[in-house]
Design brief:
This protein has 2 helices and 8 strands; from the N terminus they run βββββαββαβ. It is mostly beta strands and 152 residues long. It has helices at 78-81, 129-136, and strands at 2-4, 29-32, 40-47, 55-64, 69-70, 84-85, 107-116, 140-150.
Length: 152
């Protein structure tokens, strides 16, 4: 399975429009070659370079198995697109773009697409990104990662 974006390539800088310094839009993402028995997807985004430990920026889940992309800014319209979003470490539902402390070196943002063997995750009401990640890991068939970098 492969995950990519038209906004940035693996290992390159995330444009500011997808960060707290810009429009804070979720970036466009596309994927290919999921396992044939995939029943849904989950998308996780985290920053392992955060000063207090890994910071979760986004968890989108119960993404329909027939999809192969998420459009730019889709996090603002998740319900109409048929998927759910968790509470991120900014304490709000949806996408919270890169926003590292100023003068804190380069941060790496890991976008992880998980192909799952379950149609829906049993997360309960208003799960955190960590809750979604923990539940999704129980059903992983394949995983693809795209890393973008950003510093302020």
């Amino acid at each position: 399975m492969h995950l990519s974006s038209t906004a940035f390539s693996d290992g390159s800088a995330i444009p500011s429009r997808y960060t707290c310094d810009g429009e804070d839009l979720s970036p466009p993402l596309k994927w290919s070659d999921p396992p044939a028995d995939t029943r849904s997807f989950a998308l996780l985004c985290d920053d392992p370079d955060a000063p207090a430990g890994t910071w979760y920026h986004w968890a989108a889940y119960d993404i329909l198995a027939h999809l192969s992309s998420l459009a730019q800014g889709v996090a603002q319209h998740a319900e109409s697109q048929g998927f759910k979003q968790a509470i991120n470490d900014f304490q709000r539902s949806g996408y919270g773009g890169p926003c590292p402390p100023r003068s804190h070196d380069l941060h790496h943002y890991h976008f992880r697409l998980l192909a799952l063997s379950a149609d829906r995750l049993a997360t309960g009401k208003n799960p955190s990104c960590r809750d979604v990640a923990r539940e999704a890991r129980k059903h992983v068939l394949a995983e693809a990662t795209l890393v973008g970098v950003y510093e302020r």
